[in-house]
Amino acid sequence: MSVTDPIEQPSTGYFYAENGAVVNRLNDRVFVAAATVNSGNPRGVGSMDWLESDIPNTTSTAQFTVLSDPGGLYAGIFGVRASDQAETGTTNIFGLGVFGLNDATFHPLTATVIFAEGRHNPSGGALGSQITITAELDSIVSSGQNVGYIDPFLMYESLASATLWLASGDPSVSCGDASVAIGIISNSGVSGTGRYSKGIVIDANAIMGTTASSPGASCAIALASGHQAQWFSSSGVVATSITSVATTGNGMSLGFVDFGAFFTSGGSNALEIVGVSGGVNFLQIYGSSTGNGVKISPSGLDSNIDLILTAKGSGGVQLGPYAATAPTPTGYILVKDYTGVERKLLCA
């Protein structure tokens, strides 16, 4: 049957059939707009639409397909409005619900609940201007609204807004643990191409700054005490990690500047490491086994490297405990003063 006139159905004002709502039911398959040219047969049998022609096994395996016609900015739009949900007890609304149930028993099956693929194929001389974004999620907070505070121990603060919320489990059923929240992979495997040039990139102006004139000077990643950043070997062993178990505002922090790094505690510098332009020599610090002392040693390209300990102003270099006796010298240790002149330090 072919219908040429517009299909219009007046609203009954109801949602449930028991109250008088009209429920339309379509079985088998539905093709809309540019997808209607598809014959509905397996790939290679009959006519194909533009999507099936470019990407095999799309429309030919789909139950419902909508493809844009010329002039169509969106192939499909779903929207939900909170003010329409006036029923008492409604606490959540959803613009789109997609559910998957991986209950296969006949053979192992990967179930992907939401799949999106963006193909970057610039043509027509626009190679330098086209941008392909596979998924964009935007948060629009009304001007003047309070930004709800969120930290790892306070995730459900009033007035909070989030562009992406990942949650594991369902409190209404018994659940196990999920493997990962986000996995970044290459479909090409170990030796193939088609990789990401960078894993995660945060725009320089995306994060609220400490002041209006310094965007980005604030928290980009928030972790709870005990969370770790881990590096794995190819055998699956945790080779190294970074973690913090500090619980007060006096924990040690690490910052970087040009030619340097500094450790701070409670807002005050505890240690600064300063590099030099063209530097080839550096300092090594060694731990020790039981009964042996720790070691501070210079290393680098030069064959002979001094280790210089200096004080500030009229300060001096403090060494071990002092004994008020005058032992008879039996030799000396050769040292250099701050100016580089060799001196003999008497020893008993």
Write the layout of secondary structure elements.
Layout lengths: L29 E4 L16 H5 L9 E4 L160 E5 L5 E6 L8 E6 L2 E6 L2 E7 L6 E6 L8 E6 L30 E6 L5 E6 L1
Parallel strand pairs: 1-2
Antiparallel strand pairs: 3-4, 5-6, 6-7, 8-9, 10-11
How would you describe what is shown here?
The protein has 348 residues and is mainly beta. Among the domains are: 12-77, no CATH class; 252-312, no CATH class. The chain is 1% helix and 18% strand. It has one helix at residues 50-54, and strands at 30-33, 64-67, 228-232, 238-243, 252-257, 260-265, 268-274, 281-286, 295-300, 331-336, 342-347. The strands form five sheets. The protein has a three-stranded antiparallel sheet, with no helix packed on it. A two-stranded parallel sheet has the order 1-2. Strands 3-4 form a two-stranded antiparallel sheet. The chain is elongated. The termini are far apart.
Using brief descriptors, characterize the structure shown:
single chain, 348 residues, mainly beta, 3-stranded antiparallel β-sheet
Write a compact overview of the structure shown.
With about 350 residues, the chain is an all-beta fold. The chain contains 1 helix and 11 strands.
What is the overall silhouette?
Answer: elongated
Taking the alpha carbons of the first and last residues, their distance comes to 112 Å
Strand order of the largest sheet: 5-6-7
The total count of helices amounts to 1
Radius of gyration equals 34 Å
Mean pLDDT: 88
Major sheet size, sense and barrel closure:
3 strands, antiparallel
Q: Approximately what portion of the residues adopt beta-strand conformation?
A: 15-25%
Compute the number of strand runs: 11
Uncertain segments are none
Return the string of H and E elements. EHEEEEEEEEEE
Helix share of residues? Answer: under 10%
Give the class from helix and strand content and strand pairing. Answer: mainly beta
